[in-house]
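Step 1: inspect the first sequence and its C-alpha cells.
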Amino acid sequence: MKILVAVDGSAAALQALREALRLIGEGLHASLVLANVQEPATLYEMLLAHDADVIEQVSADAGLHLLQPARALARQAGVEHEIEVARGDPAHTLIDIAENFGCALVVMGARGMGTLRSALLGSVSHEVLHAAPMPVMVVKLPPPPEGDEAAAAPPAADDAPRSGGDAAGPG
C-alpha cells in the first residue's frame, strides 16, 4: 500500500506526515510518496527569467527544498518513501500524482482557515477531499496550549517580512 503525503513546507503538512508515520508505526504496511506541487510561474516570473528551463529548475529546487524536513522524518522512522515534485494546480496535480503512483490513501494537512477565507481563497485539502477517487485523510494541527496567546496570534505588523527581506520560500 502507498500513501501520498502532500508536503508544502507548513507545520500542518508535517503534522499530516507524523500521522501517516504513526499509522505505519502501529502496523499499517505502507510506503510513502512525499509530494510537493509548485504552482505555475507567474507572468512576472516568465518575463524576468526569459528562460522556461530556468523557471523549471528553480521550481524543482524549491520543491526539493520543501521536501527535506519530510524526508528526514521518514528516514528517521525507517519508512520507505519516494518523492515527487510537480508543477500545476495543487489539488488536481496531487490527485494525478496519487493515481500515477498507485496510492490507496492521501494524507494532507489543513491550515484551519475560517469558512469565509476558505471560500474566498479556495482550499487545496477541500478540493482534494471532494475530487480524489481514493480516501483522503485531512489532519488538523493541534490547538496551541492554553495560555499561549502568542502562538495563536497573528504576527504583529513590526514582525511582517518586508520587500527585500529574508523571507524564505517560493512566492
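Step 2: inspect the second sequence and its C-alpha cells, then contrast the two.
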Amino acid sequence: MKHKKQVEKVIALFLIELLLFIPLYVSDVYAVKPTISNINVEESYDSAIVKWQTDVESNSFVDYGITSSIPLSKSSSVLSRNHELELFELSTGQKYYYQVRSCSGPDCRFSGLEDFKTLDAPAPSKITDLKEVSKTTNTVLIEWDESDSDYFGKYIIYRNDEKVGEVSTKS
C-alpha cells in the first residue's frame, strides 16, 4: 500500500510537470521567426521613412547611423505585418547605414546592413523687399521679408563678396 502511494505521488508530480512545462516546449518548437521582405526607404532632406513587411505579427526596430556600427535605434512595440518607422533630425546629403529588425515573442529576424542617403536641402527662396532702415557712419540697419523655407536657420550678409554679418532674424 505504501509503495502504491509513492507511485501515485510520482505520477501526480509527473503530470503537474507536464502541465507546466509542455506549453514551453511546444511554443519553442512551433515558434516562428518573422520573415522580413519589401524593405523600402523614402528619404527627404532631414528625415527618412523605413518600411517593410513580415509574414507574422511582430514589433519594429530600425538600427541606424552614419557608420556601419549603427549606434542609433528607433522602435515600435505595436505588433504588425506592415512596418513603418520615421527617422527624424537627419543631416542633409548624408549617407546612413541601417538594419531593420522584427521580433515575434523571443524570436527575432534581422535584415542585412543597407544604406540610404538623405536628399540635399533645396535652395531657400529668395528674400524680398530688402530696404535700408537707418544708417550711420559705421553701421547700417536693414530689413527684409523672410524666406518661407522651413529649414532655413540664418542669414549671411555679404558686401562686395565679403561676409560682413550673420543673423538668425530678419533685421
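Step 3: confirm your contrast with the notes below.
DSSP finds one helix and ten strands in the chain. The radius of gyration is 31 Å.
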